[in-house]
């Protein structure tokens, strides 16, 4: 569907009207025969027909093209009233900028943001409504800290709410303690495994050092024996020399 022609200020060229809904073109497309339509209108038409609603020439969705640039410019320059005119908005702006204005218009009807509230309120009055909305959230006046979300909650039992809150805190604390305990046990197990591995490595290194020391001692004893044998041979040679 197009823009209601009654919203526009001044004359609107016939070529800028949708050939199906007869309102001003919205998101326009153009057929090869140069007749223009709103996208939603022509797509709906082609579900049940295969020709142009104006001259009955055969058309297909694939043949539709964007509006000519000069027509698009003429369309964007049209001036129209905000759709919230009936609520008091007096803004008149170009078709090109109307969507941006209406998204931010202070006279737009928007829903209350409080859960459960079905009131539709003008954007400019939203803050005032939220301050008095019966579905607004607020703390219990008795000081228990409970957040009141609706009118029914005003009669809540503070003692019961505090007891419930205490139980929740206790459960949360128990869970945290258990988590901390499991984490510490996991860390200790990891450190224990690491120390056992380290001990095994050190033990192997010690055994290797003992083996090396044993080999060195054996070599030293062999050298000392060889030295004694050599000394004895020298002494024997010296005796023989003296006898000669």
From TrEMBL:
GO terms for biological process: regulation of canonical NF-kappaB signal transduction. Residues 18-56 form the RING-type domain. It comes from the Eukaryota. Pfam families: zf-C3HC4_2, zf-TRAF. Residues 192-243 form a coiled coil. The keyword ATP-binding does not apply. SMART domains: RING. Residues 101-144 form the TRAF-type domain. Keywords: Coiled coil, Ligase, Metal-binding, Zinc, Zinc-finger. A zinc finger (TRAF-type) spans 101-144. InterPro entries: Znf_RING, Znf_RING/FYVE/PHD, Znf_RING_CS, Znf_TRAF. The keyword Nucleotide-binding does not apply. One of its GO terms (molecular function) is zinc ion binding. PANTHER family: RECEPTOR-ASSOCIATED FACTOR, PUTATIVE-RELATED, TNF RECEPTOR ASSOCIATED FACTOR. This is RNF41 ligase. It comes from Cephalopterus ornatus.
């Amino acid at each position: 569907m197009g823009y209601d022609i009654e919203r526009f200020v001044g004359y609107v060229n016939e070529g800028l009207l949708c050939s199906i809904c007869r309102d001003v073109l919205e998101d326009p497309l153009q057929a090869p025969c140069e007749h223009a339509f709103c996208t939603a209108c022509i797509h709906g038409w082609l579900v049940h027909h295969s020709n142009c609603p104006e001259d009955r020439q055969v058309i297909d969705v694939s043949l539709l093209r964007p509006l000519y640039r000069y027509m698009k410019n003429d369309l964007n320059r049209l001036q129209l009233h905000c759709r919230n005119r009936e609520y008091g908005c007096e803004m008149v702006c170009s078709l090109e900028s109307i969507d941006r204005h209406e998204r931010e218009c202070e006279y737009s009807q928007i829903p209350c943001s409080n859960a459960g509230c079905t009131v539709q309120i003008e954007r400019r009055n939203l803050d005032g409504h939220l301050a008095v909305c019966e579905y607004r959230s607020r703390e219990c006046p008795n000081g228990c800290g409970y957040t009141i979300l609706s009118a029914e909650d005003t009669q809540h039992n503070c003692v019961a709410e505090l007891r419930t809150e205490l139980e929740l805190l206790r459960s949360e604390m128990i869970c945290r303690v258990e988590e901390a305990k499991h984490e510490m046990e996991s860390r200790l197990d990891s450190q224990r495994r690491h120390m056992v591995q380290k001990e095994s490595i050190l033990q192997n290194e010690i055994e290797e050092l003992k083996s090396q020391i044993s080999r060195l001692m054996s070599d030293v004893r062999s050298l000392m024996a060889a030295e004694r044998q050599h000394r004895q041979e020298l002494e024997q040679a010296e005796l023989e020399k003296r006898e000669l």
